[in-house]
Q: What sequence folds into this?
């Protein structure tokens, strides 16, 4: 059997089994809605708002939050990480604090985020940003620190100064590693987004965001919307990862040659 | 100044500035950022007098118990399934696509469904922690088995090894470093998930303690919970790392 067909059969079989179980009535649709009802609910949400927002409204709200957090987190983490990798002294000053903070899971910041920024956009962005921040910084530092010494020696022989080496050797060399870290951070940040929205949003009226959507669906026992929301979260996260992976491969291509 | 001294100085300066600005000079309101001394005091206070229905140790043990039990189940199921998938081609082709379909959904996004399925109790938390910890164990075991050096397998075959011997004496030992790394990743995932699960729905545990402290506006207890989670998570991960080095001393040295 060819690999390609095998995947189709396997996924087809999985959906068929799901559909059979839900159609047999063994499990109440409250607990396991049929695949069809999930798709229909999602489709219907394009016009009919659920949790007072349409599907595209929830998606847009989540993407906006993610984007703001992404810009802030990478904007601080990459330069700081690169600086720490470049200058031992900077690293010695910042590292002890960073080491203590990095092992606290981003979600554990939720109570403080709410105290500091109140419920809403800022506190959610803060949590997402922490998720993106840590791997981005770790990889930026490692990338700059572990540049192939032969390349640095070669550049020095050709008369390059410290700054030239940083901009023309270290940064281009470590770019794929940095992007790799950002990619890990994006995965973590996406998960934090869902959690942050679940924890902080549903207390507000007209709460938008995919995490809020599945939490509202839980409270109202509309499990077809929970699964539908999970699917959308999964698909968006997957698409983001593919994009980042493409970027990473493209930047790293010259190194394999 | 040596980098080591610089690091020590950095910690001291931060602690002193933090203490001064929060408790003595009152530059930052205590509601915003608790002082280090307050956190230490609250640590001792909550050891004796219960906070949110339990002492600090009881909250900690509740969380620890959940994490450890779900983690153990996750490692056993994840590694076994990963080895099966890596070893049996047909099984792999059936299971892998389904796994790939479900994997992009972040484990924390399962929390609402888990609550609908299992209610607000131990079962839903164990389920979500299991789900998050299961994935890295499975993937690494799978890759570890799949990436067994062909030469090793051929060599063992030449000496007359049967399939079963190949799995037990070649593939599993050669994949062990990867498998152990996966187990370590599983543990940190488990810690992250328990916090989220307890923040959303619990009646005891560190996450619950922090959530109550937020409502009663006692940020020092929130900070205490965060530190406890960070320190416990680090200690357990470090422990696994040491175990990893002991079990496979031949593994390549890891950087960073």
A:
């Amino acid at each position: 059997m060819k690999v390609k067909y095998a995947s189709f059969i396997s996924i087809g079989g999985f959906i068929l089994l799901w559909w059979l179980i839900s159609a047999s009535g063994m499990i109440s649709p409250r607990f396991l809605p049929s695949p069809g009802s999930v798709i229909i609910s999602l489709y219907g949400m394009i016009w009919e708002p659920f949790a007072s927002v349409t599907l595209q409204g929830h998606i847009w709200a989540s993407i906006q939050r993610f984007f703001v957090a992404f810009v802030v987190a990478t904007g601080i983490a990459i330069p700081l990480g690169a600086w720490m990798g470049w200058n031992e002294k900077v690293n010695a000053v910042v590292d002890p604090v960073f080491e203590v903070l990095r092992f606290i899971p981003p979600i554990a910041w939720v109570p403080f985020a709410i105290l500091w920024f109140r419920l809403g956009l800022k506190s959610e962005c803060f949590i997402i940003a922490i998720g993106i921040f840590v791997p981005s910084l770790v990889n930026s530092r490692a990338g700059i620190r572990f540049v192939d010494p032969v390349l640095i020696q070669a550049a020095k022989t050709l008369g390059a100064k410290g700054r030239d080496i940083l901009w023309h050797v270290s940064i281009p060399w470590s770019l794929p590693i940095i992007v790799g870290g950002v990619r890990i951070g994006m995965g973590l940040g996406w998960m934090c987004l869902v959690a942050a929205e679940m924890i902080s949003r549903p207390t507000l009226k007209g709460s938008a965001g995919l995490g809020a959507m599945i939490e509202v669906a839980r409270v109202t026992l509309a499990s077809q919307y929970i699964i539908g929301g999970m699917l959308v979260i999964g698909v968006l996260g997957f698409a983001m990862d593919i994009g980042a992976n493409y970027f990473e491969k493209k930047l790293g291509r010259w190194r394999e040659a | 100044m040596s980098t080591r001294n610089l690091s020590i100085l950095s910690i001291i300066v931060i602690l002193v500035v933090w203490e001064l600005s929060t408790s003595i000079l009152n530059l930052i309101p205590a509601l915003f950022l608790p002082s280090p001394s307050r956190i230490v005091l609250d640590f001792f206070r909550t050891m004796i007098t219960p906070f949110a229905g339990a002492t600090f140790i009881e909250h900690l043990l509740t969380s620890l118990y959940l994490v450890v039990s779900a983690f153990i189940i996750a490692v056993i199921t994840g590694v076994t399934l990963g080895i099966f998938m890596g070893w049996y081609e047909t099984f792999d082709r059936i299971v892998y696509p389904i796994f790939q379909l479900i994997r992009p959904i972040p484990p924390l996004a399962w929390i609402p469904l888990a609550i609908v399925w299992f209610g607000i109790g131990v079962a839903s938390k164990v389920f979500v922690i299991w789900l998050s910890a299961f994935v890295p164990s499975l993937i690494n075991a799978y890759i570890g088995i799949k990436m067994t050096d062909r030469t090793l397998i051929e060599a063992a075959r030449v000496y007359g090894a049967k399939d079963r011997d190949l799995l037990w004496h070649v593939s599993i030992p050669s994949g062990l470093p990867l498998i152990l790394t996966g187990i370590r990743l599983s543990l940190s995932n488990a810690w992250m998930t328990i916090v989220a699960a307890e923040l959303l729905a619990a009646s005891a545990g560190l996450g619950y303690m922090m959530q109550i402290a937020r409502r009663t506006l006692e940020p020092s207890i929130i900070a205490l919970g965060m530190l406890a989670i960070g320190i416990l998570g680090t200690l357990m991960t470090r422990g696994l790392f040491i175990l990893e080095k002991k079990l496979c001393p031949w593994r390549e040295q890891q950087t960073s």
